Amino acid sequence: MTDSNIVKHDFLVEIGTEELPPKALKSLAAAFQAGIEAHLNAKEIAFTGSKLFAAPRRLALRLEGLEAQGKDSKVEKFGPYTNVAIGADGKPTKAAEGFARSNGISFDEVGRITDEKGERLYFAQDVAGAKASDELPVAIQDALNKLPIPKRMRWGSSRIEFVRPVHWVLMLLDNKVIEANILGVQSNFFTKGHRFHANREIAITSPAAYEATLKEQGKVLADYEERKAIIRAQVEAEGAKLGGVAVIDEDLLDEVASLNEWPTALAGNFDKEFLEVPAQALISSMKEHQKYFHVQSKDGKLMPNFITICNIESKDPQQVIEGNEKVIRPRLSDAKFFWDTDRKKSLESRFEKLDTVLWVQKLGTLKDKSERLMKLAAQISSAMGGDVKLAERAAKLCKTDLLSDMVFEFTDLQGLAGSYYAKHDGEPAEVCAAMNEQYMPAFSGDDLPETVTGTALALADRLDSLVGLFGIGQIPTGGKDPFALRRASLGVLRLLVEKQIDIDLNDLIDWAIDNNWPTELNADNKSKLIDYMLDRFSAWYQDQNIPTVVFQAVRAKGITQPLDINKRVQAVFAFSKLDSAEALAAANKRVSNILAKNDAFIDAPQVNEALLHEDAEKVLAKALAEKANEATPLFEQGLYAEYLTSLTTLRDCIDAFFDNVMVMADDEAVKQNRLALLNQLRNLFLNVADVSQL
To answer: Which of 56, 80, 420, 567 has an alpha carbon within 20 to 30 A of 252's alpha carbon?
Structure first.
């Protein structure tokens, strides 16, 4: 049958529910689509297009060019060989009869086939492809069962569980309903419109008509990305009307798109007196509690305005605006109250109360942690050439804002609130900055601290956590990382590498261990911690499209200085792109294998020139000596890329050596001398990395 003769259909499914969790809507919708597609692909039922729809009260998927049936297949069964299947009397044995019976046929219908071992029983059967109309309900139910729902709920007297109660199921194949019961609801041909604008059943005549019908008759924008684009445009337009710039937080945009089916942006005001409060506190209050977008002036200052997204098209929008203004005032009043109240007490006055807050069982209180940080941050700051007194001061105060009313209410302001309160208390500017910088980087790609004090404190905080938690056996396993130690490790690496801090990780960990710990990190766990932290480099380099083998070539050196590791990795990566790199890597691998087999790894290889007989080995020996004198200064200066590049000129004499010299000479002295020569070659490359792993 040609493609032009294959019957293709349009299919639509919509699961109608109570309002779905807004922060989970995108992931639920994506999993719904992926689950259905995976089932159909497994059944080899083809389709040409797939479009996902997701709104607060619905998950939907449209498939275009859906074939009515999957591909036909041939099932082959191989039975026992005839010497076992046929008895001496020429009749089938029990094994033969069992083979026939298992395939639902008589022995007379069993065929024969011959392979390299002889003749055996054989049965082949053509199996028609699965029907799309039969598989679609199964695919949908399977996809729904596998949705990433942390906690399912029941409703009414039903035993059925789902993320929210299900009210309708629309399932159309072209213009016909596929009869099925999904999550206790019988499928039908209707959807439901907007809860307020069109709260009624709306007939869908075909999958292709779904989106437009729902929009025109139901006041619902089913396309998630379309809603996001409309919200973005509306918010930007409202900001421009106010003479400012609306700031669109992408996470907030996703959330409001998941809360609204028919979005309408409206702008409101709040009293200018609230602008006395740090802008971040007001923004946090508007965003977290009310899902409002804030507006900035052209020079970046917060304006006394907000933009809200309503799920209705009001006939009296001013009334809606005034209602939102009434709601936001007490929220901002709370923020102002916290700001005014917190400033009545200095950060230092809160230090002793940190002793009432347990950090981690067996690792003491926040006061204990702060006292450890005072010592560790000062030590790191000193090594960086920073001001030790400022580091001690910043470490002492760094957790005190956790006891403030502002941070208790707005947890995302920890650190930032501390920097404002420190400034109010008259603390040095670098100490104020460190209050916030201690948490940098908070996520992948986040900014790094700008001050030396902030950098030292950020390193100390993470190292203290890593050493302490590894010390009590809280080592991440698999996907479990409750204390975010992966992120802490990557933060340490980023700080050391990107801030060009030339301190060995081994030393940093030792400083943290010696820091009056209530528990001791034993040698085994210390080794695990160093390996764990350095392993974070793998993901980092993958993001930079640097092959894992490049990092492993450097890792083989056993270096624990992140800045030096990164310099070497970048150098080896550059080397790997050179024309001669592959040949030199292969030569190094050959040398390593020869030396390993002959137990000939020598720390300080000595080559006896009197035992060099072949021209090729003489040339190589001379080239290695000259190259060592030429390249060593580059290595000592840390110019690893230049060092490796200079070694590429050895390729020809290395090739000539292997082409013309027998390493395993009969004369033992000559053999050992040649092994020493190869070891000299290997160590010249090994100075930077084990390039034999490339």
So the answer is: 420
Alpha-carbon separation of residue 252 from 34, 247, 283, 290, 505 (angstroms): 25, 10, 12, 10, 38
Q: Cα dist. 688→47, 575, 621, 685, 692 in Å?
A: 53, 11, 20, 6, 12
Same domain for 302 and 419, yes or no, is: no
Apex 527 CA angle, 521 and 531, nearest 5: 125
SS3 74: strand
For helices 548-555 and 523-543, give the axis angle rounded to 10 degrees. 150
Q: What is the mean pLDDT of residues 668-686?
A: 88
Work out the burial of residue 585: count CB atoms within 10 Å of its CB; fewer than 13 is exposed, 13-18 middle, 19 or more buried: buried
pLDDT classification of 108: cutoffs 50, 70, 90: confident
Question: 137 and 66, same structural domain?
Answer: yes
Write down the pLDDT at residue 85: 87
**Residues 607, 677: one domain?**
yes
Among 318, 341, 364, the domain-final residue is 341
pLDDT for position 70: 83
DSSP 186: E
pLDDT at 4 over 60: no
CA distance 369 to 395: 9
Burial 283-293 (b: 16+ CB within 10 A, else e): bbbbbebebbb
User: 678 lies in which domain range?
Assistant: 569-693
Where does the pLDDT of residue 588 fall: very low under 50, low under 70, confident under 90, or very high at 90 and above?
Answer: confident
In this predicted structure, the answer to whether residue 1 has a pLDDT above a threshold of 60 is: no
List the single range of 106-120, 139-153, 461-475, 561-575 with lowest mean pLDDT: 106-120
Q: Is 500 left (phi over 0), alpha (psi -120 to 50) or beta?
A: left
Q: Are 94 and 42 in contact (CB under 8 A)?
A: no
Same domain for 455 and 582, yes or no, is no
pTM: 0.78
Query: Does 224 reside within a domain?
Result: no
Tokens in use for 561?
């200085």
